[in-house]
Amino acid sequence: MPDTTTAAPPASNPHLAAYQARGLKGRILSGVQPTGNLHLGNYLGAIRNFARLQNDYECLYCVVDQHAITVWQEPAQLAAQTREIASAFLAAGVDGTKQIIFNQSMVPEHAQLAWIFNCVARMGWMSRMTQFKEKAGKDRENVSLGLFAYPALMAADILIYKATHVPVGEDQKQHLELTRDIAIKFNNDFAQPDFFPITEPLIFGAATRVMSLRDGTKKMSKSDPSDYSRINLTDDADAIAQKIRRAKTDPLPMPDTLEDAEKRPDADNLLGIYAALADQEKDAVVAQFAGKQFSEFKTALTELAVAKLGPIGAEMQRLMKDPGHVDGVLRNGAQRARAIAAPILDEVYRTVGFLKP
To answer: What residues bind L-tryptophan, as annotated (predicted)?
Structure first.
């Protein structure tokens, strides 16, 4: 289990007691967008940790298909990619019988709570969201309203289950802060200080930022036109080996120190990938391969990557050929998710004052 850190929750947090009584640390909600071409960065940054958390927390893992449509998605492709993400969760080791795996659109309570949060959140809060600024760019007048408002839906994803913790990377910290602001304002507006938990971030130590295999200064991305820039989770052993063999390097031997590695982005990226896959500190990997030729290091990295990723890719391929099984997992997960979400939404509606004759 990797090191994780979280801010200390309030001593009187009433939302933790039920989990502590079961020997758990809390409830987690985390989601992945079904945008296709899952790669090594997605695995190391999120999906690998899903399986590692499931013995310590009650976990809900969501394919956030409603978030995906903030930009245009081909309908048939969206459905196929939803199954692909669910397959990745299962292939990475998440137990779908014990934990809840579902797609967001199957649980309407997410969108229903999001509307209330649209009325709680302030325009100024939303306009400061960095990801909206980056995705909208200079053409803000033509982007969808959903792209602007989706942080409120993200808050609803979390709080419809009163999740106590959310695993976050650097790019999601601001959205979790917004979730906390919305929870605090709702609690204060309706004079119920403990209604929603003030969800805590779960941050993994020594997070790996996986860069392109063709350019160590750019993040590994599914949108890169070169398939050799990334290792896809569905790649077989031959494809993994070929991509690592062709990964960009420099003419020098392997770095001797971390400081030297950091000055050489392509080498630093490959060393970081090795360290993450081996669950080692990067300085130990640097010491292991210091002064050796890249060819020797790439051979070792290939063996490690095939050993770690090959079984996951093979299982994903098997699951994706059995859509009935994957759909069954998602359907069952949605039913279990709704069993948690529906009573919480009823409680929200009573608190807001919505009449239910």
So the answer is: 157
